[in-house]
Predict the structure.
Amino acid sequence: MNHITVDAAFETVDHDDFPAMLDVDRYGKRSSAFDKIISATHDHFWDPLDKKYIDFTQPFDMKNEYLVDPKLTAELQTAVADKLDEGQRIHLANRLQQYQLSSILHGEQGALNMSASLCHIMLDPGAQEYAS
């Protein structure tokens, strides 16, 4: 195994080895490898309730307004879309944006599940904190 770099920060245990997670000594072996990344998370955090990011109190008319610029919706740049009236174009574009957002959120849910799984098997508390 001379060709593989091994770092104790990535030491794992079997997912059902809960007693290993209760071992007090493992907390004294916390790696500092992730400290810089962990401390920078506050700089990259966004608060969804902060109106400077998204103001959810602003009214939005989904029937008469596009969620995004219609030029960015490829399906509206086709001959089929030319046969739609403006209301149908808005409805189609907004439904497509909702579908794309749903796909993004589905991917985020997968990432969250993976992070939770890593927290169950990583012995290093710093690695667990980073994974979470």
Q: What stands out?
A: The chain has a mean pLDDT of 90.
